[in-house]
Amino acid sequence: MPDEEYSSPFHDDVELIPHESTLLRVIPPTFIDWSGSTPRFTDGAFQDQSEKNARVKFDLPGACMSAIVKDVLTGQGLDPSNVLERFGPTYGLARFPAEILRKRCSQGVQWDPRDWPPGHAVVFAKTRRKKSEAMKTCINEISEWELEPQQT
Fold this sequence. Notes:
Blueprint: E1 22-27, E2 32-33, E3 40-41, H1 51-58, E4 65-69, H2 70-75, H3 80-84, E5 92-97, H4 98-105, E6 107-111, E7 120-125, H5 133-142, E8 144-147
Antiparallel strand pairs: 1-4, 1-5, 2-3, 4-7, 5-8, 6-7
C-alpha cells in the first residue's frame, strides 16, 4: 500500500530513459540462489541501498538501487560483460524492461551519470521511501539473466 503523504524526491526520467529501455543490475553472489539446476535471483538482489548511504556516499535524495541503461552502455562500444570485469565470475547481470518496471512494480528510473559504468541510473519506489517486499518480488519476477554467474 502506498504511503499517502509520500512525495518522491526523485524524478522519473521517461524522456532520457524511455519505456523501451532495458535496464541492467549487477547481482552479487550473496543474492543468488544456487540450489536449483540454474542460478536464480533472490528478492534481496533488488533491494535499495539505505537512504543514509545514498545521501552520504552518492549525494542522492533517498533510498534507491543502481542500474545501467543497456543502450547507453552498448552505444559507447561496451559489452555488458565489461561491467562484470570489475567484480568476478560469481557475479551476474540481470536485465529488466523499464516500462514494466514502471507500470507493474511502481518504480521510477532517474538518470545518475557516474564515471563508471556508462549509463548509470537509479531505480526508486514512486509511492514510498524504499521498496517494499512486494516491489522487490515484482522486479525479481520481471528480470532475466543478461549474464549468468558462475558457481565456483
